[in-house]
Specification:
By secondary structure, the protein is an alpha+beta fold. It has a single domain, classed as TATA-Binding Protein (2-Layer Sandwich). The protein has two helices and five strands. The chain has helices spanning 15-28, 76-87; strands at 7-10, 32-36, 39-45, 51-59, 62-69. The chain has a five-stranded antiparallel sheet with strand order 1-5-4-3-2, covered by helices on one side. The protein is globular. The N and C termini lie far apart (29 Å). The mean pLDDT is 91.
Length: 88
């Protein structure tokens, strides 16, 4: 399964709070996350079948996300849009 080009999502505020919020959202949606507030990996079952997996790295003011694995029929733009909405 193909991945997506890395993308960056800007955030404001405390990275600790952002990570706590992200972990709560991940747990509520069946996403497995390994790592900490500086970076890590994630995976989940895609709603159309298959699996979504990737990595994240937190830098000052942004999170860089790389989707390494996704179902062919799930557009990268849709994944990126959902991630951007979640970080708001």
């Amino acid at each position: 399964m193909p991945g997506c080009s890395p993308f960056r999502v800007a955030y404001q505020g405390d990275p600790d709070i952002l990570f706590e919020k992200a972990m709560k959202m991940a747990n509520a949606n069946g996403v497995t996350v390994t790592g900490d507030k500086t970076g890590g990996r994630f995976s989940a079952t895609a709603p159309i079948g298959g699996r979504i997996a990737g990595a994240f790295k937190v830098t000052d003011g942004a999170v860089e996300i790389t989707i390494t694995d996704k179902p062919f029929m799930l557009p990268c733009a849709m994944i990126e849009s959902l991630v951007r909405q979640a970080v708001k």
